[in-house]
Structure formats: structure tokens, C-alpha cells
Specification:
The complex is a heterodimer of chains A (66) and B (149).
Chain A: E1 2-4, H1 6-13, H2 17-24, H3 28-35, H4 43-53, H5 57-60, E2 61-63
Antiparallel strand pairs in A: 1-2
Helix pairs in contact in A: 2-3
Chain B: H1 16-25, H2 28-31, H3 49-83, H4 89-96, H5 98-139
The chains are: A mainly alpha (66), B mainly alpha (149).
């Protein structure tokens, strides 16, 4: 299952779901679904999110065996 | 200032105007096009990748329903033609003979097929609408109420 550290990084940088959504050009729902592992992002979206937090894609998105 | 991108799916809403023409000419199968007005509800929704993902999922389900129902209708018409059930054989033959029977058979099949196509059209559209609505409702579950983080 694809896990993300988006929620943790948002808390670190004090960014809301809506703000992050605006920064990467998607809806709040998309960020919410990403955080809960309900949606696998495209490479472009993953790289955009990584850029916002100043991290690499691998540091934010990772696979975890269930 | 950057203009907000309009959702391309909402343009399908204009097909609903065909339904108004259908009301004017009292053509029931054209009235079903009124369903397309539903697409206007998406004009305000930002078409991001999750949205298109939902559209793809809903379209896949609608496609499966369409293929399934088309196959069933095809088989129904085929076996109906083979068995000759549902055709007023005796009346047709008595009226004008064999040629009339062929005409009746052809006309009746065409009528059934047209009606079935309208039903399939409605079922396919409704499948798409309801699936898309369901997926959009599901995705809202993960939106945080408190935006202050």
C-alpha cells in the first residue's frame, strides 16, 4: 500500500489541505485521499508535492507491505 | 490574473438541448437527452487528476453495463427471431400472406430494437452519473473540517 508523509509534512510547515491543494493545482479532496492512501498520485503530482515540502519523492511516498 | 479552468465535462451539458427539441416534437427517445443537463453541475469543479480518475472509473462501469445490456438485447432479438415468438403470425398471414409476415417481423424487430436502444442509452447514462456521484461523495470523506491544520 502506498503511504505518504504529507500530513506530517503539512503539520511541520503549517500548511492546510486547501493551501497545499492550491499550491499544486488540485482539489482538497485529492490531498485528503492521498493522505489516506486512497489514491495513487501521478508522477507529476508527486514531484510537485515533493517540491513544495523541499523533499524528494521517495521521502514522501513509500510502499508498505500490508 | 489566471482564469479558472472550466471543467470540460460540463460542456456535455449542452447536449441536453436536444431533449428540449424532443419535448417540442414529442419524441420520447430525444427527451432522454435532458439527462445531459446534469453535466452542468460539474462546471465549478476543478478537473484535477483525481476527478479524471473518477470519470474513468465511472465510464468503465457504464461501458461494461452498455456492452452487457447490448449483448442481452442482441441475444433476445436473435432467439426471438429464431423461435418466432411474439410476432402476430396468424393475423399477419391471414391478412396479406407471407410478404406481410416478413414486413411485420421486420417492423416489430426494428421497433423493439429502437426501444431497447433508448433503454440502454438511459441505463448507461444513469450508471455513469450515479457512479460519478458516488465517487465524488466518497472522496469528500477525507477532507479535513478544520482548515487551520
Amino acid at each position: 500500500m502506498l503511504k505518504t508523509r504529507i500530513r506530517e509534512l503539512r503539520a511541520r510547515d503549517g500548511i492546510s489541505q486547501g493551501e497545499l491543494a492550491n499550491l499544486v493545482g488540485v482539489r482538497r479532496e485529492t490531498i485528503g485521499n492521498l493522505e489516506n492512501g486512497k489514491y495513487n498520485p501521478s508522477l507529476k503530482l508527486a514531484m510537485d508535492i515533493a517540491k513544495v515540502f523541499g523533499e524528494t519523492v521517495e521521502e514522501i511516498f513509500f510502499y508498505e507491505d500490508e | 490574473m489566471k482564469r479558472a479552468k472550466k471543467n470540460p465535462l460540463s460542456y456535455l451539458g449542452w447536449l441536453g438541448l436536444i431533449g428540449i427539441i424532443g419535448i417540442y416534437y414529442m419524441a420520447p427517445w430525444m427527451i432522454t437527452f435532458l439527462l445531459f443537463f446534469f453535466f452542468f453541475t460539474y462546471s465549478k469543479m476543478v478537473p484535477d487528476e483525481l476527478f479524471w480518475n473518477n470519470v474513468r472509473r465511472a465510464a468503465t462501469k457504464a461501458f461494461a453495463v452498455n456492452i452487457g445490456s447490448q449483448t442481452l438485447i442482441f441475444l433476445f432479438l436473435f432467439f426471438r427471431a429464431v423461435s418466432g415468438k411474439g410476432i402476430p403470425f396468424s393475423e399477419a398471414v391471414q391478412a396479406s400472406g407471407e410478404a406481410c409476415l416478413v414486413d411485420v417481423n421486420y417492423l416489430f424487430s426494428t421497433m423493439i430494437q429502437t426501444s431497447m436502444n433508448v433503454i440502454i442509452f438511459i441505463v448507461t447514462l444513469c450508471t455513469f452519473f450515479f457512479c460519478l456521484m458516488r465517487y465524488n461523495r466518497q472522496e469528500k470523506k477525507f477532507v479535513e473540517e478544520d482548515e487551520s491544520c
